[in-house]
Amino acid sequence: MWSQINLIFFVVLLLLVGASVVGKLLKNKYGEENSTIANLVLRINAWWVMVSVLYIAFVCGRIGVTILFSFISFVALREFMTVIYQKCYDHSMVVCLYLLLPIQYYFVLVQWYGMFSIFIPVCGFLLLPIVGSLSGNTEQFLARTAKIQWIAMICIFCISHVPALLFLNLEGFQSENNILLVIFMLTTVQASDVLQYIWGKLIGGTKIMPGLSPTKTISGTVGGVISATFIAILMSPITPFSYWQAGLVGFIICIIGFLGGLVMSAIKRDYGVKDWGKMVSGHGGILDRMDSICFSAPIFFHILRYYWSG
């Protein structure tokens, strides 16, 4: 397993080195005042940090991956709440941050699928409006409750499906290799995002949804999804999938990731913000990098559990 993980990260390392060299050359040619080149360099530098953090988490195994994504959920919650609750405060926020989040990731860590799968959608769904009602504030109560329930689903429940991949028991696939499934999903979805950006810049053309995402083009979306699907096919040997199955699953999670990105963009546009935060230089906030994964991770998890489970 570790030989495969190291090979994948070595390939990613080579790509980052190449990207850094290209970014340096473009910066020298066009100057630091070029905003597009400056943003590209920031994105590349941020990817160095993100890939390094991921590798360290993978080295630490199931506990390291669970801790990393619980931290990502915590930051994502803070970013989402900062945007949604710009002018008001709701006590349910404390419940999300300091009760629902640690309990959900505890169920991931102890591999308790039954509670993991129902805790947020059932217990959290009922608990949050109860806590909200105890404040006695009835102004826009239904809207406030729906917002906090949505935040819990996206930032805790959906993201927790990434480390939950590690406790799946798949037919003909050793459970200690499940970390390769995390790599497959993250690489495919993130490659789709990056390649959509690259193809869109190279080809340009008609905007696919200008009201939601002004930078996404039809050519970029199609090119990115197809390219990422091809990458998923290449990664078939590290998964329980055949080549055509890897391509199909990769295509599905890329499409779901793209649609998830549009949903999260719609929320940002509704609240008049460009990015969820400023934590990741060149990328915005954690949620700006996780938006597609929030939607694709649960779909990928349940495809595996229902069609490949031993």
UniProtKB/TrEMBL annotation:
The record's Gene Ontology cellular component field reads:
plasma membrane
Keyword set, alphabetical order: Membrane, Nucleotidyltransferase, Transferase, Transmembrane, Transmembrane helix
Leader sequence segment: none
Q: Does the keyword Transmembrane apply?
A: yes
Keyword Transmembrane helix belongs to the record: yes
Could you list the residue ranges that cross the membrane? 47-77, 89-107, 113-136, 148-167, 179-199, 220-238, 244-265
Q: Which GO terms describe its molecular function?
A: nucleotidyltransferase activity
A Gene Ontology biological process in which this protein takes part is: peptidoglycan-based cell wall biogenesis
PANTHER family listed in its UniProt record: PHOSPHATIDATE CYTIDYLYLTRANSFERASE
Tell me what this protein is called.
Phosphatidate cytidylyltransferase
- Recorded source organism is Muribacter muris
